[in-house]
Write a structure and sequence with these properties.
By secondary structure, the chain is an alpha/beta fold. 34% of the residues lie in helices and 22% in strands. The protein has an eight-stranded antiparallel sheet with strand order 3-2-4-1-10-9-11-15, with helices on one face. Strands 5-6-7-8-12-13-14 form a seven-stranded antiparallel sheet, covered by helices on one side. Strand 16 and strand 17 form a beta hairpin. Helix 3 packs across helix 4 and helix 16 packs parallel to helix 18. It starts with a strand and ends in an 18-residue tail after the last helix. The structure holds fructose -6-phosphate. The site of fructose -6-phosphate (F6R) has 16 residues, from helix 9 and helix 16.
Length: 607
Amino acid sequence: MCGIVGYVGRRQAAPILVEGLHRLEYRGYDSAGLATPEAGAFRVIKTEGRVQQLRNLIKEEIPATIGIAHTRWATHGEPSDANAHPHLDASGRIALVHNGIIENADRLRAQLTAEGVVFASDTDTEALAHLIGRSGAPTLEEKVREALSRVEGTYGIVVLDLDDPDHLVVARNGSPIVLGIGESEMFVASDVAALVRHTQQVVYLDDGELAVVRATEFHTSTLAVESSPVVKSPTTVDLVVDDYELGGSADFMSKEIHEQPTALGRALSGRLNERFATAHLGGINMDPRELRAIRRVKFLGCGSSYYAGQMGAQLVEELARIPADAEPASEFRYRNPVVEADTLYVALSQSGETLDTLAAAQELKRKGGQLLGVVNVVGSAIARECGSGIFLHAGPEVSVASTKALTNTATSLAMLGLLLGRVRDLSTADGKRIVAGLRRLPEQVAEILAQEHAVAEVAARFADTRSMFFVGRVRGWPVAREGAQKLKEISYVHAEAYQASELKHGPLALIDNTMPTVIIVPDDELLSKNIGTIEEIKARSGAVIAVTNAELPEGLADAELRVPRNETELDPILFTIPLQLFAYHLAAKLGRDIDRPRNLAKSVTVE
Ligand code: F6R
């Protein structure tokens, strides 16, 4: 959600910090700030608004070679200059940036206020800055440890002490922190996106760890007051700075939509086996006997990852004939779920940092559930928690609205369904059919993207609509949900997804000539049912946009978004693509800031 950058080394820190914040702006963008030591005090520059506004406030060179910076997505306290990070303690000698939520902040604030501390902001973070500043411990490292022992909640923090301005202290509990190792310089960030311009050698902190970071060395240890050292070696990330550049695209959503054929190619590469008509998923450490012992599959994720899970559940049931379902991880974690020994639980997450999904995975592991992760970001918390699974290989997804990650998730789950099916009753012929269908996907996605202009025209026709239905049956239902989600989040047009079969049980009452319906109409065994639904809507003067690969009767739909034919089981993957373009162009027509939708940020690392 928020973004953290820290630097210690031989170069001026401020330009590196601001450039790092710029890379992280997709994680939060309501305020930004930095702190560097200067002439015995901190120079703190912070402002409500974008990183560019922070940049505008820096009018002269800042000589310091150490500093910390933050881009915020407000949780405690509205976006304002005062609530922007970094926060200082009362003495002005400790500076802190923080991601996450301190749950006992109100209690700490009351205690500190009773002790005479005057707060300068409404944030939960400031209480932690005061706790660190008031600790009597001899070193910054120990002060941080002591202060954190009084804190409940989640955090990724970076702390700088004016009295010892040659090192940073960082700590992690539930909010990512990664160190970047340079030549006589070190970087700290909440996301590798801020580091890849400078180094590809990184060290991921785990929850419950602290690091002391100097220009030439770092030491990691456990967070407990009675701490013990933790040995960590750097890993190489294969991301480069271009992955985070717009190139020629207008925004990241458009860039990522158009990257889908290549991203899909990477997800499929080396994973399809024609000879045995199955999928080869090297990250799943289960032999055929273990795969056969699975009696149920449950997908857990949030938002679009949950909808991809619904697509996956349908695929697993169809291909492997194993009962499968999907549930929002945010619900699962709170309902004391019954964990069954012969169920395979699959945590789905692009970022690998979504707190609800991570908590669900942790609860499952604690209860001894069999757990796999289907994750995009290598080294992320969920990937490490799950230990085995499938990486999406979608490349960095910067746009808040998920596109290529959803497509790669659904495709990976199709491969999982194929694998589970082929150790059971899915015939070689059907396995071959699915393998061939999967191979066709990248080209067919490119074919859909080539019709962008036509989709944009349809979106423009409906741009003055204030509310829309998205309906689909069975395979089309998660597609409708994802289509409605995309439209809502980037255009702010109300969109409600419904099972087409349920329309006449209530919501049909809302249909009139002001309420258009997007309907998912694959050429499958339910085609005549979907045509019936279109007729019901038309009879009530509702406009219909059909997403279809069928030959519909002339004039039945008011607009068609065409999709190429593939195997029906794989339809959800292809049918989602025109809806991404539809949402994108409708939002663009309304002049929305597509990469920075209001109230939203990438990676929900808080509850
Ligand atoms: C929608 C969107 C969100 C995410 C959700 C889960 O476009 O981006 O709904 O899908 O917050 O995020 P991950 O997949 O990172 O766990």
